[in-house]
Task: structure prediction
Amino acid sequence: MASAVTCSAADLLPHLGGSANATAAAEFICGRFTAVSEYLTNTTYAVDNTYLLFSAYLVFAMQLGFAMLCAGSVRAKNTMNIMLTNVLDAAAGGLSYYLFGFAFAFGTPSNGFIGKHFFGLKEFPSPSFDYSYFLYQWAFAIAAAGITSGSIAERTQFVAYLIYSSFLTGFVYPIVSHWFWSGDGWASASKTDGNLLFGSGVIDFAGSGVVHMVGGIAGLWGAFIEGPRIGRFDRTGRSVALRGHSASLVVLGTFLLWFGWYGFNPGSFLTILKSYDSPKGVYYGQWSAIGRTAVTTTLAGCTAALTTLFSKRLLVGHWNVIDVCNGLLGGFAAITSGCAVVEPWAAIVCGFVAAWVLIGFNKLAVKLKYDDPLEAAQLHGGCGSWGIIFTGLFAKKAYVNEVYPGFPDRPYGLFMGGGGKLLGAQIIQILVIIGWVSVTMGPLFYLLHKFKLLRICREDEEAGMDLTRHGGFAYLYHDEDEGSSMPGFKMTRIEPTNTPTPDNHNSRSVVV
Result:
């Protein structure tokens, strides 16, 4: 934020001569100068908060992307269920983050482990935070919960979603974000006391670890404890594809997530009206770094998508749009950590490797008989981990000093000549996130399983949760031909009402 420039009548008076009106003139000029300075300061606050609010709206729009992606990736008989859980993530996450989450994450002053102020937004806004900042961080918190819901789709009781979503957004995720994003966090690159981990702190600019790894590891434990869906592996242990019912929804969700990522990554600068003391000139400022971040985000996703396209063509013999969409999102998850501190060419390297990381983790999941309908743990956990390592390898010194000013000798990327300290900090982040999420979410899912609150019964899973738990199907199809059938669809008759239809045909719905 800009600070007001002061004007003193006593300093101005010698320049106005010794006339009787000099003092009054000096006071008048300083008064006008101060008014203009305050106006410009207020304008800076307004512009920056408007930018942050717009970014928050974009990140929140990703919830619609998650909903469409999840809906298309599950079978039609579970569409209503997965859509409802996505709504629940936002609603339950909103209350839990308001009551506890934001305070645990950013309740400064605090210790390095957990925040302790601003519960229920008490004493808000403050000199440190305004309401726009809370909204932006809430949108991030519910994104982590949305990742987890995809891993345990098609077999999880509704009450389990309520419990885990509130716990994740109200406690587990905020603690991690405090460690790496708060000015008090023990491993934060923005730590205000200057006592940085390895002299660097962890650079996780927009959350490859804080958001994607947290959501992915939580989903990993949920899916592992629940076990695979019925029919995912046959009696011999061979993998059986349980394909989602709508590639169209998957593509729609992917593009919505792509759109929202421009709030996720560039928006993490939080402000836009800030100049840099740069030899490039006055045209170069934080607005330029924001644009560069959008470019690196784009290039990583595009590269991952194309790499996945041709790699899967060689591996399985056909072009698969679902795999391409997942590859694209894997590239985005990977670049999220270093998007602000790497060159555009490095983002292409990031996306290329991310695609192979996703392919490799998917093959490992099949061997281990691990079932994740959206590949969420592999995509967000695996590619997010690669993104953290990538930042430790490719972070550029000039960009690191722009984004994290005040420490000109801060370590940067190993491959860019900055030594291995940053990479060491990044590896520590991966380890502590895996450990923290495992010791919190793992026991939670285990207790839900022991109390029979986690997985639905076999009969309900085979029939589909839309019918057994939500009162009906998400889709209703009408077929006039009594003998017709569609490949891959099971036709289930719905009894007619007392009023006969004109053509005396019964309505039927399609259940997948």
User: Anything to note?
Assistant: The radius of gyration is 27 Å. Confidence is low (pLDDT under 50) at residues 479-496, 499-512.
